[in-house]
Amino acid sequence: MKELIEKLIQEAKEEIARASTLAQLEELRVKYLGRKGSFTTIMQGLKDIPNEEKPAAGQALNHGKKSLESDLETKQHNLEQEELEKQLNDDTFDITRPGITFPVGHIHPLSRVQKEVEEIFGQMGFAVMDGPEIESEHYNFEALNVPKDHPARDMQDTFFVSSKHHEQHGRMVLRTQTSPTQIRSMEKYGAPLRAIMPGRVFRYEATDASHDSTFYQVEGLLIDKDVSLANLKGVMTEFLTRLFKRETKVRFRPGYFPFVEPGIELDMWCLLCNGKGCRVCKQTGWMEFMGAGMVHRNVLKAGGIDPDIYKGWAFGFGLTRLVMMKYGIDDIRHLMNGDLRFLEQF
Ligand code: PHE
After folding, report:
1. CA of 291 to the centre of ligand 1 (A)
2. Per residue in 99-136, is it b (16+ CB within 10 Å) or e — as a string?
3. Is the residue at 146 inside a domain?
4. Which residue minimizes the CA distance to atom 10 of ligand 1?
5. Is the dihedral of CA 242, 243, 248, 250 positive or negative?
6. How far is Cα 189 from Cα 175, in angstroms, rounded to an integer?
7. Low-confidence winner among 91-100, 230-239, 321-330 (lowest mean pLDDT)
8. Residue 101 lies in a domain
9. What is the pLDDT of residues 26-65, one digit of tens each?
10. Ligand 1 environment, Cβ below 6 A
11. Same domain for 115 and 9
């Protein structure tokens, strides 16, 4: 019996030594040491052999089992090591390769300049107000002294929103200007008032390099008892000087907007030639910058402010145009189409 056991162990050891995969090794473990394996069978057969042979057979069996277990363990360790090395060689794993980078976005040039504008006006005591992009005709036109059927309505091509009507406030429109927020601010905070109102506006307009149906404006409003356009000139000169970080000049020309009287257009010194005259400013030395004027009596009244006590000025400039000027962008569409090749330059 003892010889039989030793022979079996010898066979098992040889097979284990020959195994070349972990799967094969597992099969051998089951074959010899498993619950239905050879060793279990012999163990169960021990009771049938003559008593005097039992101790020697039992000892050989235990000894063999231990020896096999240790062989299996060593072999498993070796095979695992081999497989790891094989994987490393197969995958040509390059530990010097840079890791995966996750693209990090950054603030859009429009938002960045808007924030700068808000900061500069904030330092001059202006609050920042917000208004809805879908407005009523009342706020977008009537309250701004642009009555129904008045030819001044044609100054701005309007998107009308078909689905919604406001009982007292007429049809709903995509606001064509940030000026309706003037009325909303007056209604909410009364006089005196000092605020800017940046936001998105919409015009029914064919798109080209300098026009888009969606763009951004910044409205400004200052209401107090003793106010004149001289203050506006001072505020705008200060604002542009801080924004462009160099000396700037502005000039007034007469201009018409129904919600101001008198109305003006404000030009700024050409940033490229410093007023000398160049291609960009068409040799004039000046660039059109914004509309402005003294707030019309009717507008103050519409906002609930007494025009016999208070007066004020208002302005509106194109934030989109300002960004184009600041960064020398020649096509307005770059700012709206989300092309990363463009945006990543900022
Ligand atoms: N809302 C005018 C526009 O969009 C600009 C403006 C604002 C003019 C305030 C005068 C006063 O053209």
Report:
1. 5
2. eeeeeeeeeebbeebbeebbebbeeeebeebebeeebb
3. no
4. 292
5. negative
6. 21
7. 91-100
8. no
9. 998 988 888 888 888 888 888 888 888 888 888 888 888 8
10. 177, 179, 257, 260, 291-293, 314-316
11. no
